[in-house]
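anyone seen this seq b4? input:
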Amino acid sequence: MIRAVFFDAVGTLIHPAPLAADVYYEAGRRHGSSRATVARRFAKAFRKQEDIDRHNGWATSARRELERWQSIVAEVLDDVTDPEACFAELYEHFARPESWTCAAAAEEVLAGLRRRGLVLGVASNYDHRLRTVIAGLAPLRGIDHLLISSEVGWRKPAPAFFAALVRQAGLPPAEILLVGDDRDNDYDGARAAGLQAVLVSTPSDKRIGRDGIDALRDLPHHPSLT
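predicted toks r here
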């Protein structure tokens, strides 16, 4: 029986609004960039940093997360006139709650799970800025636990991250459900650690199968919770 439900943050519970690539483009334009588009460059830079973390066994820290985003911004917007000012603007932007929107039906789903007596948590590879973001989004203020990789010292899908999640929940792994949109980090990582998991479909990954859902609103009806 599931007694706690933990959610991935970015891409599952919250989404940047406007899209991250659009925010980067506008910030770059203000700081002298001539890039016509940044979406592909952003995806490439993000994957590069993921590969670095994978090579390092998914170890992380507050310093590493800051350096990660400095590297991404520098690679995406490599022609700005003031790189430090551009990075500072982007870093601060994504720390503000108003830069994010909750997933459709998030408030309804969380309230329904809470009425069932389930413990609710967020388990994220985002950094300390997530605390400010969640505190400023009314539908998420009832979250019981917040687990952030840079504070744990390990990023998902490292087993040590999920071990920390289990300790914080104070429950056996099999009684914890992890809901996320990343097959490797969320679904496979949680399952390997003994947790149950549900994969939320994304535009780039529709192969959710019987253990997945098309949208967050479908979670209360998933077999693991019925």
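The first helix runs from residue 20 to 30. The chain has a mean pLDDT of 94. kinda curious what u guys think
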